[in-house]
Design goal:
2 domains, 35% helix, 376 residues, Rossmann fold, alpha/beta
Amino acid sequence: MDRGAALIIGIPREVKPREYRVAQPPHGVRELVRHGHTVLVERGAGVGSGFEDAQYAAAGAVLVDDAETVWSEAELVLKVKEPIEQEYRFLRPGLILFTFLHLAASESLTRVLMEREVTAIAYETVQLPDGSLPLLAPMSEVAGRLAIQVGAYYLMEPYGGRGVLLGGVPGVGPGRVVILGGGTVGTNAAQMALGLGAEVVLFDINIERLRYLEQILHGRFQTRVSSEQVIADAVREADLVIGAVLIPGARAPKLLTRAMVASMQRGSVIVDVSIDQGGCVETARPTTHDAPVYEEEGVLHYTVTNMPGAVPRTSTLALSNVTLRYVLELADLGFAEAVRRDAALAKGVNVFRGRITYPSVAQAFELPFVPLNDLL
């Protein structure tokens, strides 16, 4: 990827079960083409998000019949979700991959990216100087709001729940929602739960964040500083627990033990949004939209690893709003110049030509870490 050179960019169709998002909508493709780049789009890639092939063609994309052609001809591949096993064969030396990766939760993918000498940039670790995660934020907003919707749904008795209406009715108290984590997911979950009239208790380790949330959120809302005993006491009375813990690029800590889950009321619901990073609930294991829920210790667990895929049109538009500028940097400047100029984008690089360049990923699997600057 030489600076100033036209680039071939590939957008394959997502193949993870029930994943209907697409890396860029037609207007994003139009912008890339306007900058002089060639964009290969696999036929049908945008249909699940409501974008037809004809719209991509009108935007200047080259429509391709199969994924193999997209992967083999593109220098930069844009995706939404990490490659799954059936896509590993497409990974090759020199390829630049820009997508959600969550490598700390997947040793197999990490090792494949290393072995194939891929340069892999993770949306979720692009980080601004203030510590915010601009490419993760919109999907966290979607997931936080969805967490309350699906939690309220599965609390209904026909779907295995304990038959609680989160907002209550006159004369009957509201449901109780416990949220673990006061970041973007937790804040959006709290907003939705309060909007429904639920009683909300939110935990975080950052007292300043809790002060801020107390100021902006109103209703039956309480905050708590996280500690094992206080969390255990709170979840025992909860109807719905939202796992919203994030350590950028690292595995989520297990805040909810099996014993805590076993103490919860039968038919209560856990939605572990942290499952992409391994989950913050000891009893959580990844599920898909095809079979999103299972019961453990009498509690329903919703642990879908691509929750925003349930609302693909909203999610695609929200994601592309923030990713396009970084894609343009990579395409217009070339990889090396783009990461030199943009420290936030550089933090997104998890693997560079087979070497791990993100500390938390290396630590997760006891693999060697090499700073990106040492390799450029």
